[in-house]
Design brief:
single chain, 10 helices, mainly alpha
Length: 234
C-alpha cells in the first residue's frame, strides 16, 4: 500500500526539478555532476575500506578498539556522510562510555549494526538497541548519556555501508526535507519512523525514475532531499 499521495509526489517532483536546475559552481560543474562525483567517492570508500572493516568486526576478525579507530579514521580522511557529527561519532563515544561491559557491548553492537534482511527485522534491531542504550544511560545517570534519538542514523549508516541500495541513512537533513515537503510525520517510535522513512525513499525512487527515465537509488534520493533541506554538500 503506497504511503505517498499524488499531491506529495507532486511536491517531491518539484524538489527533484529544483535539484536538477541548481546553479553551477564557479568551475561550471552542475549540482548533479558534483553529487555524482561525491557519490563515487562514497562508493569507493565503502568498497575499499569500510565494508571490509565492518565485515571483519562482525566476524570477530578485528577487536572493538581497532574497529572504532579505523571507522573514525576513514571518516576523518573525508567525512562523506556527516558521521563525525553528534548522531554518528558523538553517539558512538557516548555509547562506549555508558557500556563498561566490553563483552556485552560488542555483542549488542554486532547484533545491531549487521544489516537486516527485512523491514520487520530493521524495526526489531532499532527497538532492541534503543532498549540497550536506555539501560546503559540510566546506569550512567549523568550528562553525556547516549541519545536514543541518534540510533536510527547510527545503525542505518552501518546498514547502508553493507547494502547501499536497500537501506537509506536516516540523516537529519533528509528528515528535515521530508517534513518541509510534508512527506513524513515523525513520532516517538524511532523504529517505526525509520521503516516509514525507508518506504518513502522507495516510493520517491520510483517516482523520480518515472519522471527522469533513469535509476534512482538511496544516494540519488538523498541528494534531492539534501538540496531541498538547503544542505547540499560540495
Amino acid at each position: 500500500m503506497p504511503i505517498l499521495t499524488g499531491d506529495q509526489i507532486k511536491r517531491a517532483n518539484g524538489a527533484l526539478d529544483a535539484w536538477l536546475a541548481a546553479p553551477s559552481d564557479p568551475d561550471g560543474r552542475t549540482r548533479l555532476e558534483l553529487d555524482e562525483e561525491r557519490d563515487a567517492q562514497r562508493k569507493q570508500a565503502i568498497d575499499d575500506a569500510i565494508r571490509p572493516l565492518v565485515m571483519d568486526y562482525l566476524t570477530e576478525s578485528v577487536d572493538f578498539d581497532d574497529f572504532k579507530t579505523r571507522i573514525v579514521s576513514a571518516n576523518q580522511r573525508r567525512d562523506l556522510w556527516d558521521f563525525l557529527g553528534v548522531e554518528g561519532l558523538g553517539f558512538f563515544d557516548a555509547y562506549v562510555a555508558a557500556a563498561p561491559d566490553v563483552k556485552a557491548r560488542d555483542r549488542e553492537l554486532r547484533q545491531a549494526i549487521s544489516a537486516p534482511t527485512s523491514n520487520n527485522l530493521a524495526r526489531v534491531k532499532i527497538q532492541d538497541f534503543v532498549s540497550h542504550v536506555k539501560r546503559h544511560g540510566a546506569q550512567l545517570n549523568e550528562d553525556g548519556s547516549p541519545d536514543p534519538a541518534s540510533i536510527p542514523y547510527f545503525l542505518s549508516w552501518f546498514w547502508q555501508c553493507q547494502d547501499r541500495d536497500t537501506w537509506p541513512i536516516c540523516n537529519s537533513a533528509c528528515v528535515t526535507a521530508m517534513l518541509r515537503l510534508k512527506l513524513l510525520r515523525t513520532t516517538d517510535d524511532f523504529a517505526d519512523d525509520y521503516v516509514v522513512l525507508k518506504q518513502i525513499y522507495e516510493e520517491l525512487a520510483d517516482a523520480f525514475k518515472n519522471r527522469r527515465g533513469k535509476f534512482f537509488g538511496c544516494y540519488e534520493v538523498e541528494r534531492v532531499l539534501r538540496h531541498a533541506a538547503g544542505t547540499a554538500q560540495a
